[in-house]
Design a protein that fits this description.
about 25% strand
Length: about 240
């Protein structure tokens, strides 16, 4: 039972309405819908597949991306525990997924049928409000990421993504901020919408300046101030400055 922070009897509606859409969906559906155990490298859905499910990521890491007609892979988001995958036009007849979803690590995922998800939103005002809040935050994240990539060029785009990775996956260590997510140079290039060759040259320059280290596919940012100064970082709140 949730207790009011003031010590008196709380308003159940007010307390519930402060929950995230993830929490509300998890509470409502976890006992009835299937939990999938997904191996690293498995694909949940492909771009343009008919929509069957909305997914809650209970544990693990999942990438959302698109493949260009020439075969170039672009990673749009990297999601981790307690994230939601809703990648289609809601309340539309026969919608299709707008990108692919692939597990980067072994994951547990709650699959909620699309129709049940939409019915839940329509019939629960708290859930609809929470979902609208989630959508607005997602929009701001996408807008800020596009701004960084357009205004700062390929190198600045890389610096921006490294900052965002720190915000989402960063762990403080004696050497700096460890990005606790294995990433190849190709995957980092896919995140920055650049080529591996360009990213490798930029990373080499950062290593020579002692800004980063790279070991066992994990980056450690030793001088995040350098990256922030190079892209004129505005120190946005973490909730809108991430790769999720």
């Amino acid at each position: 039972m949730i207790k009011s922070s003031c010590g008196c009897k709380g308003d159940g509606h007010m307390l519930r309405s402060s929950f995230s859409i993830y929490s509300l969906l998890e509470q409502f559906f976890q006992k009835t819908d299937q939990i999938l155990k997904v191996k690293a490298g498995s694909v949940l859905f492909q771009e343009k597949d008919p929509v069957e499910y909305v997914y809650l990521l209970l544990s693990g890491t999942v990438a959302l991306g698109r493949v260009h007609m020439r075969g170039k892979d672009f990673i749009l988001k990297i999601l981790n525990t307690s994230e939601m995958i809703v990648d289609y036009q809601l309340f539309k007849h026969n919608p299709h997924y707008q990108c692919y979803a692939k597990a980067l690590s072994d994951s547990e995922i709650l699959a909620i049928k699309k129709d049940q998800f939409e019915e839940f939103l329509m019939n629960d005002p708290d859930a609809m409000n929470a979902f609208a809040s989630w959508l607005s935050t997602s929009y701001l994240k996408a807008q800020m990421k596009c701004q960084d990539l357009i205004m700062n060029g390929k190198k600045g785009g890389l610096y921006s993504i490294l900052i965002r990775l720190c915000n989402t996956y960063g762990v403080m260590t004696e050497d700096g901020i460890l990005i606790d997510l294995p990433l190849t140079h190709q995957e980092l290039a896919n995140l920055t919408f650049g080529t591996r060759e360009v990213i490798q040259r930029a990373l080499k320059e950062l290593r020579e300046k002692d800004v980063i280290t790279y070991d066992q596919q994990k980056f450690t940012i030793k001088n995040i101030r350098y990256l922030k100064e190079e892209v004129d970082c505005q120190n946005c709140p973490y909730e809108i400055c991430g790769v999720n």
